[in-house]
Amino acid sequence: MSSPVIKAIKRKIESECRVFKSSWTLDFFVVEHNECLLCLICQEMIAVFKEYNIKRHYSTKHADKFNTRTSQVRIDRVNLLKDSINSQQFFFKVVKLSSETATKISFLITEAIAKNGKPLFEEEFVKDCLDIFASVTCPDKKSIVESISLSYQTVARRVDDLSSNIEISLIERLNAYKFYNLALDESTDVSDTAQLAIFVRGVTEN
Questions:
Q1: Strands 179-188 and 45-46, how do they pair?
Q2: Which of 41, 55, 85, 94 yields a CA-CA distance of 20 to 30 A from 25?
Q3: Is the domain of 49 the same as that of 17?
Q4: Which distant-in-sequence residues (6+ apart) come within 8 Å of 108 by Cβ?
Q5: pLDDT category, 27, cuts 50, 70, 90?
Q6: Residue 180 forms part of a structural domain
Q7: Which domain holds residue 138?
Q8: Are the C-beta atoms of residues 49 and 103 closer than 8 Å to each other?
Q9: What is the percentage of the chain residues whose pLDDT exceeds 70?
């Protein structure tokens, strides 16, 4: 008769109720960051909220240099390292925000060019105007203007993206209609080419 097989139950970290202790910051130079532990000295991440792991990291890598720093000197050093980490995070956040702002401006300018039927090479003229404006009114924002991509290829790609977005939004609206009616008409564009115009009026559940 075979003996029953005993399966080992793997414990999850969440089930062990491991929480960050504020005393670890002063004792081992660590802070809580993105659900992990961050060493203020070497900026290495410590995945497990366990004092043994934290103490081993500190003892093997930093104890020789930092054990001599006690009382207020140690507190000042911890605060200095924390300020340094916060400054780095703020810098990367600003860089990301600037990049997103530049992309948004690029799309808005492209939309204005397309709506007004302007040729795509107008973007360089627009960027020159923006550069002049930024230089005079807000020189600290000039880097954002310089990072705005308004090349012919970029504007053409942006127009395609905007067109696809409008088409997707229109399809989503049409699918949401419970009742609708259509009106069709034929028109011509500036080159006298026939174009089919379709007008849709619909009612949603709301």
A1: unpaired
A2: 94
A3: yes
A4: none
A5: confident
A6: yes
A7: 93-158
A8: no
A9: 83
Q: pTM for the whole thing?
A: 0.40
Give me the long-range contacts of 177-181 (CB less than 8 A, separation at least 24): 177/202, 177/203, 177/204, 178/202, 178/203, 178/204, 178/205, 179/203
> Two tokens at 179?
């009742």
What is the token pair recorded at 39? 């060493």
102 part of a folded domain: yes
Instruction: Report the pLDDT averaged over residues 120-142.
Output: 77
Mean pLDDT for the chain overall:
77
Q: How far is CA 169 from CA 131, 165, 175, 206, in A?
A: 34, 6, 10, 18
Q: Does residue 83 lie within any of the structural domains?
A: no
User: Which of 37, 51, 38, 46 shows the shortest CA–CA distance to 84?
Assistant: 38
- If asked whether residues 124 and 174 sit together in one domain, one would say no
Tokens of 150: 């308004």
